[in-house]
TrEMBL record:
Cellular-component GO terms for this entry: extracellular space
Domain FAS1 as annotated: residue spans: 21-167, 160-308
Protein's UniProt keywords contain Signal: yes
Protein's name according to its UniProt entry: FAS1 domain-containing protein
Listed Pfam families: Fasciclin
Organism of origin: Tetradesmus obliquus (Green alga)
Residue ranges, annotated region (Disordered): 408-431
Signal peptide: 1-21
Keyword tags: Signal
PROSITE patterns linked: FAS1
Amino acid sequence: MARLARTVLLLLALVVSTTQAQNLVADKLKKQGLTAAAEVWDLAGVSTPASNPKAKWTAFVPSNAAVKGFLTEMGLTMADLKARPGLAKRIVGSHLLLGSNVRAQEIFANGNTRVANTAAGSSSRLLLKQAGGKVTVAGKHGAAANVDPAYVAVDDNKTIHVVDKVLYGDGYYPSFSALCNARAITLSQFCQAAAVAGLDSILDAPAGFDHTLFVPSNKAFIAAKLDLGAGAAAPSASAVADVLKYHMLAGPAQPLPALAAGKHETLLAGQSVEVLYKGGKAFVNGVQIVKRNVYVGKAIVQGVTQLLVPGKSATAGAAATTATSTAKPSASTTIKTPKGSISITPGSITLPKLSITPAAAAAAPKSPVSINVSTKAGRRMLLDFGWGASAGPTALEDASQQQIQAAVDGDESAADAGQQALGGSEDLSVPGTANLAEEGIYNW
């Protein structure tokens, strides 16, 4: 009987210990008054795997005021965020460094400027700077945040640095203006077409644009030979608007894969598009979606590299190979709209010159910064960051960090592996500089 009682007590102690471990991060955030961030981490599904005692990480966690300001800037409420768990994952991933537990005094051991990869991937690096006794951290775009000098030790393997702004990673933008500025190299023609059509003010309306959009890249406009230039042959602004409306679904916005397969009404009256999932890929009217779920305010953008043409079968298109889906049209196509027709024929593309200014590149630091990224499968770990690296992670550390990475990636992890890389060709020795490939920084 005594033996049975001891066994029961041991089991109860194990359950309590496991529960405490599972709630470690959420409890620590709440005790520090970071209740909004705790809710975001829970929405992202990261709190539990991040609480694993073997997991090693550093997180820049926004204050309550920072989260509130971010939601206001995005035009979202917390209820909207709950309907967009993928956005919560992007936010947490863009603030989280896996595999390194870094305290404030260790960050700048080798210089006043540091670059770090995040769990969101190399396209969402952080840039840390120290000047005048202050430390700032900046995301892929948007304003830099101030880092509170008093760090929070979660345990021996985990550290929290409180920041006064939510950092913007590659997968989310407060507005279409911000998206156009950050991706001017590859989306400028869509942005210019929206301006020509008079839709730019609607996309960035204060109330938000709560719709899913299939946004064609510059590749799509170039491949279609669509001429939006001035002159008698140029289509009317209303006709251009109808073409773009055919790329916009009736609201509310839905991410993939929550957006159901089948036909969906567009903002072009009487016209619909067909969404299909096949072989781990997503298609719209037979055109593969090459970049999933970019959150732009209330809108959710799906990236495509072809213009959508009314009447094209999604089933037939999805059966084609990727090479076929990206092939340039060999014959002219006419898109008919209630306001007229647009002829897509061979020829050079001409767009009116509008003022879309790319974000300024960061100034080069006085001393170069070098980083090495682990090539081990499933890891995005910064090794040379200005502090001493251990002999290497244990199998348990690896497993715990892979669980966090899987939570951050969510449903998109498998699909993203087959999509075009976002990193492009970048010079890692100096933050803010890039060797731009012909296609630009981004391949979408």
